[in-house]
Design brief:
274 residues; Rossmann fold; two-stranded antiparallel sheet; alpha/beta
């Protein structure tokens, strides 16, 4: 048993979706970039990423796990250990994802280590979800109004609050961590006028809540204000291709390269981990 554990939080990219050619599996999670980083540290790995998960859900899950570690109780996740070194790896996802608490169905699918934390009434959607693809009639009606009640400026401000609050909580409780953007930079708010997968596209910037963003600790957050320096765009600009054109996930070589790429950045923030 190692002296530490890397705990990964994020969306399907952090879950390693489609590494083995299918959506979500234990194999994928065990071969994701979080798992490869854990090997470099000589740590164990736990993966709390949720396929389709929003930044809201990432924040909630991270704070729930943090609470377990702080309090020292392991009721929800029995294999959390007291007096153990934990490192939180957090890959923030797309701005336009959010949760609706609506149905009685568990829609997240396989959830890895996060299973006991899930609210089975949460429906993960995006502001671009096509209502016509949803079977439930009432949910279809709700989705038609989503673009009128929220936008990426609102979500960028919410995410800034999540990041700042989480950094503060982790620092206060002496938990080492590292953050990065898994898909996109979160200052880009004109989401639907750009090709989100074109690495050469010029971004349209609007900073949202600059007061909070300006106080984010960038020494423990990989290039938060760079358009190209996120997991997906960095990997695709370095020769990695999608496993399929349906879900836009990358294979294990991309996960290995990303782990190798951010490892020195993490060591700059935490030299004792090397």
């Amino acid at each position: 048993m190692s002296e530490g554990t890397v705990i990964s939080f994020g969306c399907s990219h952090t879950a390693g979706s489609e590494i083995d050619g299918v959506g979500d599996s234990d194999y994928n999670r065990q071969h994701s970039y979080g798992a490869h980083l854990a090997k470099k540290f000589g740590y164990d790995h736990m993966n709390f990423a949720l396929c389709g998960g929003s930044n809201q859900r990432i924040f909630v899950l991270t704070t729930q796990v943090l609470k377990e570690i702080i309090v020292g109780t392991c009721n929800l996740v029995p294999h959390l250990r007291k007096n153990h070194k934990y490192f939180f790896l957090i890959g923030w996802t797309s701005l336009n994802r959010f949760d609706l608490r609506y149905s009685n169905h568990l829609v997240y699918g396989q959830a890895g280590d996060a299973g006991d934390y899930l609210d089975d009434k949460i429906v993960p959607v995006t502001s671009g979800t096509n209502p016509n693809l949803v079977e439930d009639k009432d949910l279809r009606r709700i989705l038609k109004y989503i673009p009128y009640v929220t936008d990426n400026v609102v979500m960028a401000d919410q995410l800034a609050s999540y990041i700042f609050a989480l950094q503060t909580m982790l620092e206060t409780n002496n938990i080492d961590y590292y953050m990065f953007n898994a898909i996109e930079n979160h200052f880009k708010t004109d989401y639907f006028t750009q090709d989100r997968y074109d690495v050469h596209a010029e971004p349209i910037w609007r900073p949202g809540n600059t007061i909070i963003y300006d106080n984010i600790d960038e020494t423990k957050y990989y290039h938060p204000k760079s358009y190209i320096e996120n997991y997906y765009r960095w990997c695709t600009s370095h020769g990695h291709e999608n496993q399929s054109n349906k879900y836009w996930h990358l294979g294990e070589p991309a996960h290995i390269d990303w782990a190798n790429h951010i490892y020195p950045e993490i060591l700059n923030a935490y030299p004792n981990l090397g």
